[in-house]
Design goal:
Order of helices and strands: HHHEEHHHH
Shape: elongated
Number of helices: 7
Structural class: mainly alpha
Radius of gyration: 23 Å
Strand order of the largest sheet: 1-2
Largest sheet: 2 strands, antiparallel
Number of strands: 2
Length: about 190
């Protein structure tokens, strides 16, 4: 494989890894959630890291300029860069938190920006849908029925999420809010 093709394949491996990570992260409309500016930057960083790794292989004479680049080196560059990007060189304690420093720090900043952007995009669509669905619903009737129904139709909801939903629903019942706000909050958590 020529260097140009090897770089293209490595970049695709890196970008695909980034896409897979984001799709698994955003449960609500994962494909819609992966194409904003922070997400594209995340793909680009992953792809460039894979390309840079392959170029470094060449610079350190691990692959030859005159011979085709073996697929094993392309795969090693593509997946190896993903492991390197997610690593930290060292950690230190700041207050009660451990803070990692290294390539993972840069990736974390971009991923946090992607999370905020996805939340903003999806919140608008969810708010419109919840408002439409919950018109005319009586909170006292929905407060038990809606969470129970949602839990019944979901197949793989972790117990921790089920418990959190139960706590939020119970707390909402006694919250000093009007019925419309309670309805919107109840449906928004589902």
């Amino acid at each position: 494989m020529t260097l140009a093709w090897a770089v293209i394949v490595a970049v695709l491996i890196g970008a695909a890894t980034g896409i897979t990570e984001l799709v698994s992260r955003y449960r609500d409309a994962p494909l819609k959630a992966t194409f904003s500016l922070p997400e594209l930057l995340y793909f680009i960083i992953n792809g460039l890291a894979a390309a840079l790794t392959l170029v470094l292989f060449r610079e350190f004479d691990l692959v030859s300029d005159s011979e085709p680049i073996p697929l094993k080196w392309v795969l090693t560059a593509g997946f190896g860069a993903m492991a390197a990007l997610r690593s930290s060189l060292f950690s230190f304690r700041a207050g009660d938190q451990d803070v990692a420093l290294g390539p993972s720090t840069v990736l974390r900043v971009v991923l946090d920006a992607a999370d905020r952007e996805v939340d903003r995009q999806r919140a608008t669509a969810r708010a419109v849908t919840v408002d439409r669905i919950m018109r005319g619903v009586v909170f006292d009737k929905a407060q038990l029925a809606l969470p129970t129904y949602c839990l019944a139709i979901l197949q793989n909801l972790p117990q921790e999420d089920q418990d959190r939903l139960a706590r939020q629903s119970t707390a909402l019942k006694d919250a000093p809010m009007d019925e419309r706000a309670k309805n919107l909050s109840l449906a928004g958590w589902q």
